[in-house]
## 1
Amino acid sequence: MKKVLAILCALTLLFALCACGESAAPAASSDSAAPAEAAPAAASSEAAHIGVCQLVQHPALDKATEGFVTALKDKFGDQVVVDIQNASGDSATCATIVNTFVSDEVDLIMANATPALQAAQAATNQIPILGTSITDYGVALGLDDFNGKTTGINVSGSSDLAPMDGQAEVLHELFPDAATVGILYCSAEANSKYQVEAITPLLEGMGYTVNAYTFADSNDVAAVTATACDENDVLYIPTDNTAANCAEAINNVALPAGKPIICGEENLCAGCGVATLSISYFDIGYEAGLMAYEILVNGADVSSMEIEYAVEITKEYNAANCEALNITVPEGYVAIG
């Protein structure tokens, strides 16, 4: 009898445990489903997680990233985690970085420079992507019908394009008597090629003979610059990440040769140029940060957001190089600090 009672007690306890397990399962399932239905990251109690992929470390891109992070801190306060990764100029490393962001399920990716943007767009069509320091999004993403929005693609951002006609006018204002202009750029950068194609007819319309010179990477920058200096009166370099990273090498060739360079942006000009019509990279980075807030907090659709452009554009000059080349800068130009 005692054995029978013991068996009955054991069975009763077993049924009770099974019943408890069945009642707990729906509660666990409900909790795990909650994040999929939750509000945007910054509106919840969890901090927004943003991954930043910067192509290479140089002053222009550094300032864009700084502006982006500053805007995030201004808008999110402590409710944001920013993971900044630098690809050291390597496109393959950009792909590795953004694929890690995708695996980590970040809330948003910021891609600083065209190769970083292309890698991010190839890695995900779900996570919102914001670019900055991108000259032309249509060119960068291969969009034939680009009209200021990347409709249907999870990408938007801010551009570093200064008006090409204004840059041509800066060159003409300082060097009206020059006959030949050599344009120097990296053949691997699609946006550099875009700028060259845009400014060439403008310069030719001013009476210049324009010659284009390309380098593949940093290894042949000095040699190509020397050839361009030998064959032209003045040089022009568009916004170009490889050139910006090699500004010192370019300057070491062009300055002793007595050849002035007009540049597409401030930081490149500070390294090897005499003058530029430039935007603020901090400002375009900051604008991208504001766009991130609109996406993550207010639910803006990244694919319907207009590409943002710099509002302020400034004529600037490199005082040291101008003095070394005996160039008198007209009124209206600001010395690069």
## 2
Amino acid sequence: MTDIASRVNNHNWKIDPIVRSVLDTDFYKLLMAQTIFRRHRNATVTFGIINRSRTVPLAKMVDKGALKEQLDHIRTLSLSRGESTWLRGNMFYGKRQMFSPEFIAWLEGFRFPAYHLEERGDQYELTFEGPWIETTMWEIPALAVIMELHARAVTKDMAKFELQVLYARAMTRVWEKLERLRQLPDLRIADFGTRRRHGFLWQDWCVQAMQEGLGPRFLGTSNCLIAMRREVEAIGTNAHELPMVYSALARNDAELAEAPYAVLADWQQDYDGNLRVILPDTYGSDGFLENAPDWVANWTGIRVDSGDPLEGGEKVIAWWQKRGQDPRSKLAIFSDGLDVDLIEELHNRFNGRIRLGFGWGTLLTNDFRGLSANGRLDPFSIVCKVISANGRPAVKLSDNPTKAVGPETEIERYRRVFRVGAQAAAPVLV
């Protein structure tokens, strides 16, 4: 097993780049890219980094030259023959040839497009503008680079033995969490921690720990490269990006109101089974579920990704019952800010009432809370979101208004179109 402390102590980016492969990304990104490739590949879409944790001065902590080196390195990456073979021949979600030959051929020729980087006060402005099928690929590696450079900046002056103690404590913390989780009957949990991981080596260690500590309770990882190397399932569905772009492309309020369902109509032409999981909260879960066409209730499951998860779980159960569905046959995936206490609480509330799944993210792959001086290694909330599509501003509302993004006037328009009422604001840790 990798001696992470020694690698961190001796790291040199040319030997140990942060992003090692085009496949060092989340599986949902490839699934969405195929849908984009088939329908909207030429839409011009801009993505941008948003640091929700403004108290973390990234431009002061992360060297701009180092950031550019890592981003420029990513632009040299291409899909290897072995990686292409894995995508072509592997079985994902019980199905071979999940990705079409045309999409694989495009991916084999793909190179990351240009980026724009500037300092704005104590933060970075990092944006990606171009064809949607190209700019979408930047989201995960850009976040991974920033997070790991932040961790490297904090640990650069730590001596080898100090690093060994740091990682020993972090490993003990992860293992203690796994010991608690394996007490839960029928647990189904996956690693969703790529975007805000402490580092690639650490995420890889966490996946191996879950393999050993949880056995069959561990479903797999969202990270394609780690899934391939560790021979575990690649896990993922879809994200807020799709309805954000479809909505921005809408020509009027009527098309805007239908955009989230147009996403699902396209998705079900491409995927079936456990990939038909609804993400309802982009513009408020209540309105989405209330106005959803009847065929949406036939989908396999729902991902609960913002707002109070206990309340959200009860809402989806009530919605399935109202639509004549048996919740016990439906999959509910919880994925927002999970850690062991909340996983245990959700499991105790919902196990047996639904098919329960968990996507464990930042507090699996980046829980160094309290392990460094002044909490400088504590995880923080940073995202890469759609800013515009074909020149029109993009908006996300969420079930938690603290997560809303977009121009204020457009946020108000979206709240009106989607009939979003009062929402309870909650702090965003990760």
## 3
Amino acid sequence: MMFERQKTGSVVCPSCGKLVGVREKECPYCGRAQPGMFGLTKMFRDMGFDFSFSDMILWACGIVYLLSLMRDPSALFQGGIMRWLAPTDASYDLFGMTGVRQVLVQGRWWTLLSAGWLHGGLIHIGFNLYALRFLGPITAKLFGQGRFLIIYTVASAAGFALSVGVGWVFLSVFRGGGCLVAILANTLGPGAVSGSLGASAGLTGLVGALLYYGRRGGSRALGQQAKTWIISILVFGILFPGVDNWAHLGGILGGYLMARVLDPLKPERTDHVIFGLICFAVSLGAVAFSVIRGLMFAP
């Protein structure tokens, strides 16, 4: 029967990937509490998740992207190829794009959470979801599914918070002056002055977490690979206009710090999974809140 709760047999432990009894209170291999997730493994697999929370993020990004397009399809084929199938600015604002105006002028702080679910066109979302399909399973395997969700959502919010902070400093303090500030603005961008969105802040957080894992776990190869990815991300951001490098830097820092707090060499606990799902729900709920609030107070 579809979506039936499994009560007997074995399941794959989400933390270490080994077979354990569905009723085991603790994984005998890695120590994870309730590795059978109370018999819900089969239900998740029937839904197509197979315990992959990165797939949940992927589907959520896709759904939010389609909804933002449907809200106002008037500009779908306007602009260059990078803006092909891009939502309008009004749609971005409704669904929760973040920036100096949204957070510090309008007080819409929840956009720091909602912006990570929005994308600026087909190429933008395609590139990010491709990266998620690659980085998500690696991070989840090393940290566990729950800690993966925590790292992703916290790093995303941290990235946008840094970008908004830099944007505010640029606008209110240093605009038009200072050689160093001019160099930083021309090289890395002025932050979220005109708005920011995208899953890349959370994705760079995963790279930051992998960098910490390489250091904590003694994996020199993984650490070097993470450093290579970080350099590539920054070079790409410098060469191509419109990339929010500050959100990327904030994401890397947020992911690294969260990985340090969560300590990947310790077994994942059930409360990690619960808190990860809460982070996911609150972050995605910020999109719904932004839309409902925007429609209620629309002129």
## 4
Amino acid sequence: MATIRPFAALRPPKQYVEQVSCLPYDVMNHREACAMAAGNPSSFLHICRADIDTSEEAIHDTITYEKSRENLEKFIQEGFLVREAAPCYYIYRQIMWGRVQTGIVGCASVDEYQNGTILRHELTRKEKELDRINHFDTCSAQTEPVFLAYRKHEGISTAIREWIKFHKPEYDFKSEDGVTHLLWPVTDPGVIDTIRRGFEEVPALYIADGHHRTASSAAVSAKRREQHPDYTGEEEFNYLMAVTFCDEDLFIMDYNRVVSDLNGLTPEQFTDAISAAFTVTPAPAGAPYAPRTKHEFGMYLNGRWHILTAKPGTYDAGHPIQSLDCAILQSNLLAPILGISDPRTSPRIDFVGGIRGLEELEKRTKSGVAFALYPVTMADLFHVADSGEIMPPKSTWFEPKLRSGLFVHEIER
């Protein structure tokens, strides 16, 4: 049983939503955030990236977290964020490249994250956790949602379809990255109950994106529970804001690799070395090569594209991790041949999300080599999480990204 409950969000009035909303805090650096918010005092970046109002050196300082809280309170006072009159769900739809994904905005249970009803597939980094812990704790609000997925439930899907069919969206705008965003508040008590009961029949939720935000929300919840030993479990700090999508709607893009050098090998020596585990053939001339199936890779080396195909016996096809292409590449090539034993920490490897295109790999590859991977599937992600395993780093790249500033979840101080 999964819990997704309604809540009274802080959100912008529709006349302000385009100028308030922004990309997520962690897809940009300080300089890029400053440029995005330039000339727009109502950009939500002033809340989720308040370092644009302090300094790059103070990103993780108390002064920046305090500035986030100050800006949040200012947005409320000036009417850029308004508190919903009563708890409700929100239907959030995104359209990108003609693809549609539609989710429910609500609050998931911190306890279900702790007991494994909400399953994870990535490790978190303590410094990134601490940043959002300090941010959420100081603001007494979860300013950006977690991205959850679930296996399709027909009752929830029907409720979403019927509400959209008979109601106009509150928000309907296209952001600067070309993504259309629509939002419908679901205020009818009967429909709210239908959605709530639908999620109670969902056996598990899966973190698609936002492992650090989830862990940080849980840490702040634990702190609040210590501060309020008489808590009932109904307080908002027991819940974390999430957008929850049916798996059939979701789109995972490729997450590619660029290595800065060949570990002392010539291109010919490198090609000979990888031939033990991969079949190497020239790719058709004229364009970058995107893999067409699992266990096939595009390789850009010495100004040319090649096709790598993993040879049978070089991986365990039945293992949830070892059968992933990123793991096959790591265990058969990156570690033994290029000497990258820990891709999390090696300065010689870079990761490029598929949204940037394969031409980006060509631009970044000078004296090294780049690899284009076939995208991980939702079935892969579910298999890994259900097995209690952890995916290799930089395995999944979801698009489109959830827009920030459309809803905020307040928690008690």
